[in-house]
Design brief:
alpha+beta; 4 strands; two-stranded antiparallel sheet; elongated
């Protein structure tokens, strides 16, 4: 871990910033504001660094700690928009490395009112990054349970 200072600040971007996952080998942030944030979180949960150091000798219960980047970039982003006559039809193949994605079949007798447009997205994220958060940001939709439940309920009412 490298501390960002006035002299090296231009060497880093927001994508390089990490947040500590607390453990006995973690170096606490030197930045006073960040250090206070971490300590306030620990205080709220009644956790101290001494607790981690006390358990360091017990391999099974010790936590060394780590660091996690606070922002991740999706890579290999590929998308397209397809028309689909059936909202239950698979638009992505589970064997994406072996075969192309299916193309929904729209026939002449398909009712144009029943055709939906769908956005197909493929992307790659590093380990410990969450696709649901990426999708939330792309769609500008809340990932809160009650919001997602309301979306599902509205969709189910429109299907019936």
């Amino acid at each position: 871990m490298v501390e960002v200072t006035e002299s090296n600040i231009n060497d880093y971007t927001l994508f390089d910033v990490v947040f500590p996952i607390i453990g006995h080998e973690v170096k606490m942030p030197a930045n006073p504001e960040m250090n206070k944030i971490v300590k306030d979180i620990m205080t709220e949960d009644h956790i101290t660094m001494a607790m981690f150091h006390a358990h360091a000798q017990f391999g099974a219960t010790s936590a060394t700690g780590s660091y996690r980047k606070i922002i991740a970039r999706a890579e290999q982003v590929v998308f397209d928009i397809v028309e689909a006559p059936n909202t239950n039809e698979d638009l992505l193949t589970p064997r994406y490395l072996e075969e192309p994605d299916p193309t929904p079949a729209i026939t002449q007798d398909t009712d144009s009112a029943s055709i939906s447009k769908a956005l197909r997205l493929k992307f790659s994220l590093r380990a410990s990054s969450y696709a649901t958060m990426f999708l939330r940001e792309v769609t500008r939709t809340s990932s809160a349970f009650n919001v997602q439940q309301q979306i599902s309920n509205t969709r189910n009412m429109n299907i019936d």
